[in-house]
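Priority: medium. Attachment 1 of 2:
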């Protein structure tokens, strides 16, 4: 019996529960978090995922919904709008499994890229920066991306050529980045740049580049 090649078979959701072996490190709190993320996915992602997958993107409103449902704030301090600040790595693993359970990465790549872009701002940023950047990002009103990879050197930090130079009160940045999750919709960029001589020792984190500033493309 032949099957029409233009008709796509509906793949079942990935069964992470059946694949995951029992672990003494997964507590009732972890399972409650998994259920919380699963409800978010089933309610707010699954009904639209075919359309979003085809478009390669999703509506900005999902950020606000994810913030309200506690997804965006995972592991961040409550004082800046975070949720479960004492979360261990299993929380992020479970969240990643649930967000990928539908068999697509289009939501995960942009929705929670702040999980890697925002911690340095929380740790190193001033109180003013916390209010201007961290709180709005965790509320889903602003977005941030982490710019490291470059067209020539890839993710090899020691080969980085993007350079930042101090000029008065400003830093002037010249260079290019590529393959940055969430960059096209970001309001802020945490950037790894070269501020000294060659090698990994000359790399700094720049807090932050305004993604809407003149000269940023």
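Attachment 2 of 2:
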């Amino acid at each position: 019996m032949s099957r029409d090649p233009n008709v796509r078979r509906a793949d079942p959701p990935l069964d992470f529960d059946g694949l995951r072996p029992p672990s003494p490190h997964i507590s009732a709190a972890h399972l409650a978090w998994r259920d919380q993320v699963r409800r978010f996915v089933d309610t707010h992602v699954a009904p639209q995922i075919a359309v979003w997958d085809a478009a390669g993107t999703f509506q900005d409103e999902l950020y606000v919904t994810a913030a309200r449902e506690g997804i965006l704030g995972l592991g961040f301090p409550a004082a800046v709008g975070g949720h479960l600040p004492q979360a261990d790595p299993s929380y992020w693993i479970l969240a990643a499994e649930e967000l990928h359970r539908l068999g697509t990465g289009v939501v995960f790549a942009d929705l929670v890229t702040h999980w890697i872009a925002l911690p340095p701002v929380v740790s190193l940023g001033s109180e003013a920066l916390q209010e201007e950047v961290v709180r709005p990002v965790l509320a889903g009103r602003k977005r941030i991306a982490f710019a490291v990879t470059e067209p020539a050197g890839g993710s090899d930090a020691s080969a980085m050529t993007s350079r930042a130079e101090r000029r008065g009160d400003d830093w002037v940045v010249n260079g290019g980045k590529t393959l940055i999750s969430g960059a096209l919709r970001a309001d802020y960029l945490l950037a790894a740049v070269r501020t000294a001589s060659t090698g990994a020792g000359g790399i700094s984190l720049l807090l932050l580049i305004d993604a809407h500033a003149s000269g940023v493309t």
